[in-house]
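Protocol step 4 of 6: structure prediction from sequence.
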Amino acid sequence: MFDLLILMFSGALVGFAIGLTGVGGGSLMTPILLLMGYSAPVAIGTDLLYAAITKSSGVIFHHKKQNVDWKVMALLAAGSIPVSVLLSILVMRHGLAKNEQYESILTTFLGVMLALTALVIALQKHIQKRLSPGTHPPVHHGLEPPFYGYPQKHTAIMTLLLGLVLGFCVTMASVGAGAIGAAILFLLYPHWKATIVVGTGIAHAVPLTLVAGLGYLANGLVDLPLLGSLMMGSIPGIYLGTHVGSLFPDKVMRAILVAALLGLGIYFSVIH
Protein backbone atom coordinates (compact mmCIF):
# COMPACT_ATOMS: atom_id res chain seq x y z
CA MET A 1 0.00 0.00 0.00
CA PHE A 2 2.87 2.36 0.83
CA ASP A 3 4.48 1.69 -2.56
CA LEU A 4 1.16 2.39 -4.28
CA LEU A 5 0.85 5.72 -2.47
CA ILE A 6 4.41 6.68 -3.47
CA LEU A 7 3.68 5.89 -7.11
CA MET A 8 0.40 7.79 -7.04
CA PHE A 9 2.18 10.76 -5.47
CA SER A 10 4.84 10.60 -8.22
CA GLY A 11 2.12 10.60 -10.86
CA ALA A 12 0.41 13.53 -9.14
CA LEU A 13 3.71 15.44 -8.95
CA VAL A 14 4.44 15.01 -12.66
CA GLY A 15 0.80 15.71 -13.56
CA PHE A 16 0.98 18.89 -11.50
CA ALA A 17 4.13 19.95 -13.40
CA ILE A 18 2.40 19.26 -16.73
CA GLY A 19 -0.65 21.28 -15.74
CA LEU A 20 1.45 24.09 -14.32
CA THR A 21 4.04 24.57 -17.09
CA GLY A 22 2.74 22.55 -20.05
CA VAL A 23 5.92 20.43 -20.05
CA GLY A 24 7.44 17.82 -17.81
CA GLY A 25 5.80 14.51 -18.77
CA GLY A 26 8.60 12.35 -20.15
CA SER A 27 11.22 14.79 -18.91
CA LEU A 28 10.31 14.15 -15.26
CA MET A 29 8.54 10.81 -15.08
CA THR A 30 11.33 8.64 -16.48
CA PRO A 31 14.09 10.02 -14.20
CA ILE A 32 11.75 9.74 -11.19
CA LEU A 33 11.14 6.07 -11.97
CA LEU A 34 14.88 5.51 -12.40
CA LEU A 35 15.56 7.11 -9.01
CA MET A 36 12.90 4.79 -7.53
CA GLY A 37 14.89 1.77 -8.74
CA TYR A 38 13.15 0.78 -11.98
CA SER A 39 15.36 -0.25 -14.88
CA ALA A 40 15.82 2.26 -17.70
CA PRO A 41 13.91 0.21 -20.33
CA VAL A 42 10.93 -0.35 -18.02
CA ALA A 43 10.90 3.29 -16.88
CA ILE A 44 11.02 4.56 -20.46
CA GLY A 45 8.49 2.06 -21.81
CA THR A 46 5.99 2.70 -19.03
CA ASP A 47 6.42 6.46 -19.34
CA LEU A 48 5.82 6.36 -23.09
CA LEU A 49 2.37 4.82 -22.62
CA TYR A 50 1.75 7.22 -19.72
CA ALA A 51 2.54 10.13 -22.05
CA ALA A 52 0.29 8.79 -24.81
CA ILE A 53 -2.65 8.59 -22.41
CA THR A 54 -2.15 11.91 -20.60
CA LYS A 55 -1.58 13.90 -23.80
CA SER A 56 -4.52 12.44 -25.75
CA SER A 57 -7.00 14.91 -24.29
CA GLY A 58 -4.70 17.73 -25.37
CA VAL A 59 -5.07 16.67 -29.01
CA ILE A 60 -8.85 16.97 -28.81
CA PHE A 61 -8.58 20.40 -27.17
CA HIS A 62 -6.11 21.78 -29.72
CA HIS A 63 -8.03 20.30 -32.67
CA LYS A 64 -11.20 22.07 -31.53
CA LYS A 65 -9.24 25.31 -31.24
CA GLN A 66 -7.82 24.75 -34.77
CA ASN A 67 -4.30 24.68 -33.35
CA VAL A 68 -3.14 21.59 -35.26
CA ASP A 69 -1.61 21.59 -38.74
CA TRP A 70 -2.43 18.00 -39.66
CA LYS A 71 -0.32 18.03 -42.83
CA VAL A 72 2.80 18.94 -40.88
CA MET A 73 1.84 16.43 -38.20
CA ALA A 74 1.56 13.73 -40.89
CA LEU A 75 5.05 14.62 -42.18
CA LEU A 76 6.48 14.35 -38.68
CA ALA A 77 4.76 11.00 -38.12
CA ALA A 78 5.95 9.69 -41.49
CA GLY A 79 9.50 10.10 -40.21
CA SER A 80 9.13 9.26 -36.53
CA ILE A 81 6.83 6.24 -36.40
CA PRO A 82 8.81 4.00 -38.82
CA VAL A 83 11.98 4.77 -36.83
CA SER A 84 10.24 3.84 -33.60
CA VAL A 85 8.93 0.57 -35.05
CA LEU A 86 12.37 -0.28 -36.45
CA LEU A 87 14.07 0.32 -33.09
CA SER A 88 11.51 -1.92 -31.34
CA ILE A 89 12.13 -4.69 -33.87
CA LEU A 90 15.90 -4.38 -33.40
CA VAL A 91 15.56 -4.64 -29.62
CA MET A 92 13.39 -7.74 -29.98
CA ARG A 93 15.53 -9.39 -32.64
CA HIS A 94 18.82 -8.88 -30.78
CA GLY A 95 17.46 -9.60 -27.32
CA LEU A 96 18.49 -6.25 -25.88
CA ALA A 97 15.65 -6.04 -23.36
CA LYS A 98 17.73 -7.57 -20.53
CA ASN A 99 21.14 -6.37 -21.74
CA GLU A 100 22.97 -4.28 -19.12
CA GLN A 101 25.00 -2.42 -21.74
CA TYR A 102 21.80 -1.44 -23.55
CA GLU A 103 20.34 -0.19 -20.27
CA SER A 104 23.47 1.88 -19.65
CA ILE A 105 23.20 3.41 -23.12
CA LEU A 106 19.55 4.33 -22.50
CA THR A 107 20.38 5.95 -19.15
CA THR A 108 23.24 8.01 -20.57
CA PHE A 109 21.21 9.08 -23.60
CA LEU A 110 18.36 10.08 -21.29
CA GLY A 111 20.75 12.29 -19.33
CA VAL A 112 21.93 14.04 -22.47
CA MET A 113 18.34 14.60 -23.64
CA LEU A 114 17.31 15.99 -20.24
CA ALA A 115 20.17 18.51 -20.28
CA LEU A 116 19.32 19.48 -23.87
CA THR A 117 15.65 19.86 -22.94
CA ALA A 118 16.60 22.13 -20.03
CA LEU A 119 18.60 24.32 -22.41
CA VAL A 120 15.74 24.52 -24.91
CA ILE A 121 13.19 25.41 -22.23
CA ALA A 122 15.51 28.12 -20.91
CA LEU A 123 15.76 29.64 -24.40
CA GLN A 124 12.18 28.92 -25.48
CA LYS A 125 10.77 32.37 -24.76
CA HIS A 126 13.69 34.03 -26.53
CA ILE A 127 13.27 31.81 -29.61
CA GLN A 128 9.54 32.44 -29.62
CA LYS A 129 9.95 36.23 -29.47
CA ARG A 130 12.59 36.28 -32.20
CA LEU A 131 10.74 34.05 -34.66
CA SER A 132 7.00 34.54 -34.10
CA PRO A 133 5.42 37.74 -35.46
CA GLY A 134 2.24 36.96 -33.54
CA THR A 135 0.07 36.40 -36.59
CA HIS A 136 -1.29 33.25 -38.18
CA PRO A 137 -3.53 32.81 -41.20
CA PRO A 138 -6.98 31.24 -40.92
CA VAL A 139 -7.42 27.55 -41.49
CA HIS A 140 -8.17 25.96 -44.89
CA HIS A 141 -8.26 29.14 -46.99
CA GLY A 142 -6.00 27.82 -49.72
CA LEU A 143 -3.03 29.84 -48.48
CA GLU A 144 0.45 29.09 -49.74
CA PRO A 145 3.07 27.34 -47.59
CA PRO A 146 4.45 27.42 -44.99
CA PHE A 147 0.99 28.03 -43.57
CA TYR A 148 -1.89 25.57 -43.75
CA GLY A 149 -1.18 24.56 -47.33
CA TYR A 150 1.29 21.78 -47.96
CA PRO A 151 4.79 22.93 -46.85
CA GLN A 152 7.33 23.94 -49.48
CA LYS A 153 9.62 21.16 -50.67
CA HIS A 154 12.68 22.02 -48.59
CA THR A 155 10.55 22.72 -45.51
CA ALA A 156 8.72 19.43 -45.99
CA ILE A 157 12.03 17.56 -46.18
CA MET A 158 13.30 19.27 -43.03
CA THR A 159 10.02 18.45 -41.25
CA LEU A 160 10.36 14.80 -42.27
CA LEU A 161 13.95 14.76 -40.99
CA LEU A 162 12.78 16.31 -37.73
CA GLY A 163 10.31 13.42 -37.44
CA LEU A 164 13.15 10.92 -37.92
CA VAL A 165 15.19 12.55 -35.15
CA LEU A 166 12.24 12.79 -32.78
CA GLY A 167 11.32 9.17 -33.45
CA PHE A 168 14.80 8.08 -32.37
CA CYS A 169 15.02 10.41 -29.36
CA VAL A 170 11.56 9.69 -27.98
CA THR A 171 11.86 5.92 -28.42
CA MET A 172 15.28 5.84 -26.79
CA ALA A 173 14.59 8.25 -23.92
CA SER A 174 10.86 9.19 -23.90
CA VAL A 175 12.09 12.80 -24.13
CA GLY A 176 12.20 15.26 -27.03
CA ALA A 177 8.73 15.44 -28.57
CA GLY A 178 7.77 18.45 -26.45
CA ALA A 179 10.29 21.22 -25.91
CA ILE A 180 12.90 20.16 -28.47
CA GLY A 181 10.36 19.42 -31.19
CA ALA A 182 8.61 22.74 -30.54
CA ALA A 183 11.86 24.70 -30.78
CA ILE A 184 12.68 23.23 -34.18
CA LEU A 185 9.13 23.76 -35.44
CA PHE A 186 9.52 27.43 -34.55
CA LEU A 187 12.61 27.52 -36.77
CA LEU A 188 10.88 25.74 -39.65
CA TYR A 189 7.60 27.68 -39.41
CA PRO A 190 8.48 31.11 -37.96
CA HIS A 191 5.08 32.62 -38.86
CA TRP A 192 3.19 30.19 -36.65
CA LYS A 193 1.69 31.23 -33.36
CA ALA A 194 2.97 29.40 -30.28
CA THR A 195 -0.42 27.69 -29.93
CA ILE A 196 -0.05 26.11 -33.39
CA VAL A 197 3.42 24.83 -32.55
CA VAL A 198 2.22 23.35 -29.27
CA GLY A 199 -0.95 21.86 -30.77
CA THR A 200 0.85 20.27 -33.72
CA GLY A 201 3.58 18.96 -31.42
CA ILE A 202 1.09 17.31 -29.09
CA ALA A 203 -0.87 15.84 -32.00
CA HIS A 204 2.37 14.23 -33.20
CA ALA A 205 3.54 13.16 -29.74
CA VAL A 206 0.47 11.04 -28.98
CA PRO A 207 0.78 8.50 -31.85
CA LEU A 208 4.58 8.49 -31.52
CA THR A 209 4.59 7.74 -27.79
CA LEU A 210 1.80 5.20 -28.27
CA VAL A 211 3.67 3.30 -31.00
CA ALA A 212 6.96 3.50 -29.09
CA GLY A 213 5.25 2.42 -25.86
CA LEU A 214 3.58 -0.54 -27.57
CA GLY A 215 7.01 -1.51 -28.91
CA TYR A 216 8.35 -1.62 -25.35
CA LEU A 217 5.23 -3.54 -24.29
CA ALA A 218 5.88 -6.12 -27.01
CA ASN A 219 9.40 -6.51 -25.62
CA GLY A 220 8.07 -7.02 -22.08
CA LEU A 221 9.36 -3.65 -20.89
CA VAL A 222 6.17 -2.01 -19.61
CA ASP A 223 4.98 -2.38 -16.01
CA LEU A 224 1.19 -2.18 -16.38
CA PRO A 225 0.39 -2.04 -12.61
CA LEU A 226 2.93 0.79 -12.36
CA LEU A 227 1.24 2.58 -15.27
CA GLY A 228 -2.15 2.29 -13.57
CA SER A 229 -0.79 3.68 -10.31
CA LEU A 230 0.80 6.65 -12.06
CA MET A 231 -2.41 7.40 -13.93
CA MET A 232 -4.45 7.43 -10.73
CA GLY A 233 -2.22 10.16 -9.36
CA SER A 234 -1.61 12.15 -12.52
CA ILE A 235 -5.22 12.96 -13.41
CA PRO A 236 -5.93 15.02 -10.25
CA GLY A 237 -2.36 16.39 -10.45
CA ILE A 238 -2.89 17.77 -13.96
CA TYR A 239 -6.25 19.24 -12.93
CA LEU A 240 -4.74 20.94 -9.89
CA GLY A 241 -1.72 22.26 -11.80
CA THR A 242 -3.91 23.69 -14.55
CA HIS A 243 -6.12 25.58 -12.10
CA VAL A 244 -3.44 26.98 -9.80
CA GLY A 245 -0.92 27.81 -12.50
CA SER A 246 -1.96 31.46 -12.54
CA LEU A 247 -0.90 31.79 -8.88
CA PHE A 248 2.77 31.11 -9.65
CA PRO A 249 5.06 33.35 -11.74
CA ASP A 250 5.86 31.60 -15.02
CA LYS A 251 9.52 32.64 -14.87
CA VAL A 252 9.97 31.12 -11.42
CA MET A 253 8.33 27.80 -12.34
CA ARG A 254 10.33 27.50 -15.55
CA ALA A 255 13.54 28.31 -13.70
CA ILE A 256 12.81 25.52 -11.19
CA LEU A 257 11.98 23.10 -14.00
CA VAL A 258 15.15 24.00 -15.94
CA ALA A 259 17.30 23.56 -12.83
CA ALA A 260 15.71 20.18 -12.06
CA LEU A 261 16.09 18.89 -15.62
CA LEU A 262 19.67 20.12 -15.88
CA GLY A 263 20.59 18.51 -12.56
CA LEU A 264 18.98 15.20 -13.57
CA GLY A 265 20.64 15.38 -16.97
CA ILE A 266 24.10 15.80 -15.47
CA TYR A 267 23.44 13.03 -12.96
CA PHE A 268 22.32 10.41 -15.48
CA SER A 269 24.80 11.30 -18.25
CA VAL A 270 27.93 11.92 -16.16
CA ILE A 271 27.61 10.78 -12.55
CA HIS A 272 25.31 7.75 -12.66
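Step 5 (inspection) to follow. The two ends are 29 Å apart (CA to CA).
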